[in-house]
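Kynureninase, pasting as requested.
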Amino acid sequence: MPTPTDDDALFAGTRAMFALPDGVIYLDGNSLGPLPSNVAARVARTVQAEWGAMLIRAWNDAGWMDLSGKVGDRIGRLIGAAAGTVMVADTTSINLFKVLDAAIHLNSERSVVLSDTGNFPTDLYIAQGLTARLPGRRMLRTVAPEDVMAAIDDTVAVVMLTEVDYRTGRRHDMRAITGAAHDAGALVIWDLAHSAGALEVDLAGTGVDFAVGCGYKYLNGGPGAPAFVYVAPRHQDGIAPLLSGWIGHAAPFAFDPDYRPAPGIDRMRVGTPPVLSLEALDAALDVWDGIDLARVRARSILLTELFIAEVEAACPALTLASPRDAQARGSQVSFRHEEGFAIMQALVARGVIGDFRAPDVLRFGFAPLYVRPEDVKSAAAILAEVMDGRLWDRSEYRLRGRVT
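Structure tokens follow.
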């Protein structure tokens, strides 16, 4: 029997901080993180002792107005960003809209936003919509993920990429691409939706210009948790937000008729902060206190390598869609099968929760804070049973809801 390690003890401790349902192996934290045990009490306290007892005074007395920056700084530690460079507000899509517009105007003599064909659709939609409405011949250009470096030229104003591909887990080389973009005179925006809390990120060290990401995946902030936005210090006071809302004003409660952007990262705020969601996310981040991301990443690699080995040995009909090189993928593993949707529904019915991405991808996320090696082996064994017995071949497993 293997000897327990220090990492086993560390991650047993973090697992105990989640309210995980009995009989479930949860491999979908790359879509929605599970509930940390302390969140419900925090939200209840905010509702009862702050909103209920303090009423509107809580904006000052309970520090509600400072939550966006406070939580931003906590996330900043997980993504290699200095204090005062990350703000929590709005959604990933809205934050991307803000920074993409800012970057285009900082590099206004160029016309191209460069992305890749594997990028998450909402990122591409935001870029399509924004470039179509800006003056001049702005355009979104997409290339295959492996062709990004070669496509960076002197027409590119902004390189806009998601570090970890949402379907396959393929990981871009942030340092190399950021360096190449800067050498060519372009700015860079990174979407960290599948990176923050899953692997080591060093925004300051790699010289990234802008970044965005969500709070509800590996950060476990709950469904619809607010997103975060990063702006490098060198850009903060030189950008004029297109979404110039009152909370991003230099003096919101002066109620000036004209907009003046707040100094620094505060200008990336728009409207009234979602206090209950911010409190939930803040509480969820407690699990990260004192956690070394290098240990999380090492454990992630152990889990994903184990899953690939177990599944490939037992399920020859499934084709690996993720990079085989652990350093070239994030904290997820994807397999392809033409009946992928039905297979996933059969797994969910047996207590193994992953998800499906069209057209044929079974997607499994591995969050070391609560996923154990024994969970990986059990999930692979159940998957083998489903495949060997064609247990997926039932009409109810082909019924699709609005969310897959």
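Note for the archive: The CA atoms of residues 44 and 276 lie 9 Å apart.
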